[in-house]
Amino acid sequence: MIDRIFHTLARRWLLFLNLAVAVYVGLPMLAPVLMHVGATGPATLLYRIYSPMCHQFASRSFFLFGEQVAYPRELAGTSLTPIEAFMPDLPEFAEASTDPAQWASFLWPARRFVGNAQMGYKMALCQRDVSMYSSIFIGGLIYGLVRRRGPIRPMRFWLFLLIGVLPIALDGFSQLFSQFFVNTQIETLARLFPLRESSPLLRSLTGALFGLSLVWWIYPRLDEQFSLTANDIGRRLAARADAASSS
Q1: Contact of 114 with 40, CB cutoff 8 Å
Q2: How many helices (H) and strands (E) does the chain have?
Q3: What is the per-residue pLDDT across 154-212, written as a single tens digit (0 to 9) for each?
Q4: pTM score, whole prediction
Q5: In this structure, what DSSP letter does residue 144 have?
Q6: What are the two backbone dihedrals, phi and then psi, of residue 25, each rounded to the nearest 5 degrees?
């Protein structure tokens, strides 16, 4: 019985993995829908479940059912109305500073703020994570279609680092270091990492590059290993069937 279960899992690994990723990225998108229809209890539960996996900052999250799809910091320099324009009317931000250099006072309110009827409600994962996991799901579907034509060569590791890891690392860490060093007394560090805030578009692009590159790098390797496992279990099952029929 156990061998049959593992045989099915090994043969259908891509289906099960795609379903798992779809659920993982779909539930955070369900949270604002539940908030919108008044099901605050289940929505709050989803925000809490995903809280350890993501910072959930309102300024770095997508919103549904509001005036805009996102409310980035003014420092991000987008055409969207920045979240600072709404902060004076939001109780969660009563103690937060609109000065981007005083970023520490902004973090907890931005994490706690879920949304309202005017602005809509944020997803339970940030923009970068939503883009990354959505791209992994889409990449998995594409992989399932393309592999029907034959084996797919995995992406080289150095190319994965260059295309998938480097953009997301540069965007994320340059932003993090700029906030960390903005009030430092070491001027060299402040000049090396000028204060910046990434835009929703850049977060989404870097997340998508990482997600798609990850699929190309690791899924062919998983496919090979699961195929070997499925063949090995299949041989054992066939041998048992033959032994049972001959006895």
Answers
A1: no
A2: 9, 3
A3: 999 999 999 999 999 999 998 888 887 776 656 666 677 688 899 999 999 999 999 99
A4: 0.92
A5: H
A6: -90, -20
